[in-house]
């Protein structure tokens, strides 16, 4: 379509915008990168089950945002300050109940999504060559997600959370050899106290999030490098398997014809044989 | 996986990509739909099931129900299975062995199941693991969700109490011992062992008090209780099943 906009000088605003994009692209290659990222091919059978990893990442982002908002109001003080700040967030701060509710429910939902994601990868055998390291980085992400739940639980500083965490830390401390040291590190000393709360706070909002972000980066790097796995029962795979099966049956028939007198096995008998085909 | 299998996979995957479709918009569309539904679901949960503020922490009163978040119920229930601390069911199984074996299996799994086969019904070992681990986790989580969390305030069905033991029982009740232990059928069936016949161990009070102060995990320390209460509690517990029935 030819319109008057296609001839003559461009809109100056558009000129400036294009020049800015070109300036950045010339130095960073962002246009090429984005084009490669968005328009690279993925297997045609990529399924709805393969959205769980992305969803887990989005929920993590949501936890980060709600967590940052909560951190603006939370006071990690064992002398009533922590409890009072939780009460304030829940009852006084505008939308505070909503942000805290989303953070709390987000934690449960994130655990469920991460488990479903793991189950999908496991059942599909998607951790097999060449994606072993993707699985291992994912395993660490699962463990860190669980540890997020453990450290976050204490921060509300109510009876249930406090004593459940005392028991949990006791369990860590009871491990042979390293246990006592781990216990001391988690408690910030031999006893549960003010330093324990600030330590859990720091672990919960700085140490593990940094670990999770790093491992999400590694996980994504592997996924982009190796590509998303194809469902083992995609249409394309099923067609290949059917073709292989037909070819083998034909071979069995040929074999029977070539050797008169040999028993012609019904082709179905050999269908279940272990033949190494995928 | 053998080299030939690896090359065959690489070739097959390259083919899948060649005949595939672009990441944008196909994958991005599905991702966006599911992620948005999930975040909306979280918002609805936050609105419908409001967060509550529990009782404030009081480390001096150990009256508590040691209940973790639901996603740790399975670990909590494991403690109940291995609560007896005897040779057959040592508590270290629940606190150390089982969790670490699961973590180790999780991490090294790609090096256990290495064959080229990806269809689950042709990987019986992986299928078996899926069924066993999933049903175990679901069962234990369900058990944890349904485990009794409180203990009756009526007292324990124990008779023959003298003055000191009555005081001891009051300490027992006030500190939520029944949230983990059972006496004559009253209380939680774990994580702590049944104390109905604790007296038959023949411990003296000094040994019992030392235990209260520094027990074996996961039991927390009760060193913060006043000495008189510890003494009364020790008398009570040391007589259970023998003097007080």
Q: Describe it for me?
A:
- The complex is a heterodimer of chains A (278) and B (245).
- Chain A has 278 residues and is mostly helical.
- Chain A has two domains: 48-226, Cytochrome Bc1 Complex, Chain C, CATH 1.20.810.10; 235-270.
- Chain A is built from ten helices and one strand; from the N terminus they run H-H-E-H-H-H-H-H-H-H-H.
- Chain A has helices at 12-28, 30-39, 52-73, 81-91, 96-123, 132-155, 159-173, 179-187, 194-226, 235-258, and one strand at residues 41-42.
- Chain B has 245 residues and is mainly alpha-helical.
- Among the domains of chain B are: 1-52, no CATH class; 163-239, Cytochrome c-like domain (Cytochrome Bc1 Complex, Chain D, domain 2, Orthogonal Bundle), CATH 1.10.760.
- Helices cover 53% and strands 2% of the residues of chain B.
- Chain B has eight helices and three strands.
- Chain B has helices at residues 3-18, 23-48, 73-81, 91-112, 124-146, 163-174, 205-213, 227-239, and strands spanning 21-22, 182-183, 186-187.
- In chain B, strands 2-3 form a two-stranded antiparallel sheet.
- In chain B, a hairpin with a 2-residue loop joins strand 2 (182-183) and strand 3 (186-187).
- In chain B, helix 3 packs across helix 4 (91-112) and helix 6 (163-174) crosses helix 8.
- The N and C termini of chain B lie far apart (65 Å).
- The chains are: A mainly alpha (278), B mainly alpha (245).
- At the A-B interface, helix 2, strand 1, helix 3, helix 4 and helix 5 of A face helix 1, strand 1, helix 2, helix 4 and helix 5 of B.
- Strand 1 (41-42) of chain A pairs antiparallel with strand 1 of chain B.
């Amino acid at each position: 379509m030819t319109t008057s906009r296609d001839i003559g000088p461009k809109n100056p605003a558009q000129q400036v915008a294009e020049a800015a994009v070109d300036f950045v692209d010339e130095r960073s290659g962002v246009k090429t990168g984005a084009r490669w990222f968005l328009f690279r091919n993925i297997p045609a059978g990529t399924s709805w089950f393969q959205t769980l990893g992305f969803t887990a990442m989005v929920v993590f982002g949501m936890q980060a945002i709600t967590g940052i908002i909560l951190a603006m109001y939370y006071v990690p003080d064992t002398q009533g300050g922590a409890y009072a700040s939780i009460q304030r967030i829940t009852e006084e701060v505008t939308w505070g109940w909503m942000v805290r509710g989303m953070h709390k429910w987000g934690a449960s939902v994130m655990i469920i999504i991460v488990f479903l994601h793991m189950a999908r990868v496991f059942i599909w055998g998607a951790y097999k060559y060449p994606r072993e390291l993707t699985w291992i980085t994912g395993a660490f992400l699962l463990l860190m997600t669980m540890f997020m739940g453990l450290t976050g639980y204490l921060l509300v500083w109510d009876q249930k959370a406090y004593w459940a965490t005392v028991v949990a830390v006791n369990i860590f401390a009871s491990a042979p050899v390293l246990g006592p040291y781990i216990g001391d590190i988690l408690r910030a000393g031999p006893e549960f106290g003010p330093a324990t709360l600030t330590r859990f706070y720091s672990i919960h909002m700085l140490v593990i999030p940094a670990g999770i972000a790093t491992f999400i980066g590694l996980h994504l790097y592997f996924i982009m490098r190796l590509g998303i796995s194809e469902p083992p029962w995609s249409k394309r795979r099923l067609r290949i398997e059917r073709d292989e099966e037909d070819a083998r049956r034909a071979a069995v028939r040929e074999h029977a014809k070539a050797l008169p007198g040999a028993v012609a096995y019904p082709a179905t008998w050999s269908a279940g044989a272990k033949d190494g085909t995928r | 996986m053998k080299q030939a299998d690896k090359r065959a996979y690489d070739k097959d995957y390259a083919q899948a990509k060649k005949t595939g479709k672009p990441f944008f918009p196909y994958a991005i569309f599905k991702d966006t739909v599911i992620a948005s539904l999930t975040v909306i679901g979280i918002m609805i949960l936050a609105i419908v099931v409001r967060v509550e503020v529990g009782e404030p922490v009081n480390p001096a009163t150990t009256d508590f129900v040691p209940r973790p978040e639901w996603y740790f119920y399975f670990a909590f229930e494991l403690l109940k299975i291995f609560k007896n601390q005897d040779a057959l069911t040592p508590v270290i199984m629940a606190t150390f062995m089982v969790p670490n074996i699961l973590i180790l299996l999780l991490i090294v799994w790609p090096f256990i199941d290495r064959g080229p086969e990806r269809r689950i019904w042709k990987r019986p070992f992986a299928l078996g693991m899926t069924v066993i681990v999933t049903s175990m986790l679901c069962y234990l989580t369900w058990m944890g969700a349904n485990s009794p969390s409180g203990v009756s305030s009526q007292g324990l069905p124990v008779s023959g109490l003298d003055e000191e033991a009555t005081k001891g029982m009051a300490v027992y009740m006030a500190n939520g011992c029944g949230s983990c232990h059972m006496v004559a059928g009253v209380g939680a069936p774990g994580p702590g062992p049944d104390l109905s016949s604790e007296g038959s161990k023949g411990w003296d009070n000094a040994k019992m008090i030392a235990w209260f102060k520094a027990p074996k995990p996961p039991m927390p320390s009760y060193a913060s209780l006043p000495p008189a209460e510890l003494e009364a509690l020790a008398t009570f517990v040391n007589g259970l099943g023998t003097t007080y029935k």
